[in-house]
Amino acid sequence: MKHIEATIKVIELLCATDNAVGVREAARAVNMSKSVIQRTLQGLQEAGLSTTTPDGRYRAGPKLYGLAAAVLSRFELREAARAVMQEMWDRCQEGVYLGLLDREELVFVDKIDSLHPIQYVLPLGQRTLLHVGAAGKAVLAAFSTDEVEKVIRDKGLSKQTPRTITDRLRLVTELDKTRQRGYALSVGERIIGAVGIAAPIIDALGKPVGSFVITIPESRFKRADEGDLAKVVMWGAKRLSMSLGFLDELPKLEAEAESARRSSSRRLVTSRRTEAPQAKTTTEKRKGVK
User: What does residue 84 show for φ and ψ, rounded to 5 degrees?
Assistant: First the structure.
């Protein structure tokens, strides 16, 4: 625990000063022993988080600046995504989630819940493997072949439900289909009874950074609605991607997403008539997302 405390204090010190600091100076600044601080600084240097000057003093390393930039960009991305998520929700009235790529997994960081009495909810911060569910498959489909194979080697293809794709060739085929149509579909692959439709968010370098996913209970999902929901999620993902510097065309998707909004409004009215008001407190409101 003391080592963790020392590491945090030293990193804060390196980030707070423009000048390099010596071991003794750092120990005084954080009120810890010289031996502890020396080991901490050496460990940070080995990890690339600090560098040394010719006279043996320490300053923040480029890797530390890179981590800080990555965290800042995620905050900016989440803020930019929120407005797009609201427009997506206005057009479908279903649950809308934002997942961000992190170490070959997806982390859900923001959501807008559905107004339907029966819905699926997901605790923010929950992680998911990329081969499990629509949100992850959308990101995986935006990877190169080599990147997909690396994820399979690193993470495996574990089963989460009887419908989870655990066969490599089947997954490759599914990813090809996802690329061709522009969105990923999952029916019970991560949570039994949940449907997800997702599209990848691409940055200025053409790399996936996450995905938007629309969730809906399988009991309410109709195949005829798939196209409308897909238009909304693809529109949202491409709009956010363009704000990140990815070049693409939106006019056609704008019109299609607006058409989907009108269809979803009709579905919401019908749903409220057929779903029991107390359904929100039944076991059918399950924690999870596809």
Answer: -70, -40
Q: Are residues 124 and 265 in the same domain?
A: yes
pLDDT tens for 214-256 read 999 988 888 888 999 999 999 999 999 988 878 665 444 455 5
- 143 and 35 co-located in one domain: no
Burial 111-149, CB ≥16 within 10 A → b, else e: bbebebbbbbbbeeeeebbbbbbbbbbbbbbbbeeeebe
Instruction: Say whether pTM exceeds 0.70.
Output: no
Same domain, yes or no: 33 and 128: no
Same structural domain for residues 218 and 169?
yes
Question: Which residues is 21 bridged to in the sheet?
Answer: 58
Nearest to 263 by CA among 232, 233, 289, 240: 232
For 101-133, the pLDDT digits (tens) are 988 999 998 999 888 766 667 778 888 999 999
DSSP assignment of 7-44 equals HHHHHHHHHH-SS-B-HHHHHHHHT--HHHHHHHHHHH
Which range of residues forms the domain containing residue 19? Answer: 2-60
Question: For residue 35, is it within any domain?
Answer: yes
The CATH code of the domain that includes 24 is 1.10.10.10
With tokens 């690396």, the residue in question is 150
Cβ count near 273 (within 10 Å): 7
Kindly state whether residue 290 falls inside one of the protein's structural domains: no
List Cα–Cα distances, 197 to 66, 78, 96, in angstroms. Answer: 33, 20, 10
Domain boundary residue, one of 38, 60, 82: 60
Give CA–CA dist 83/156, Å, rounded.
35
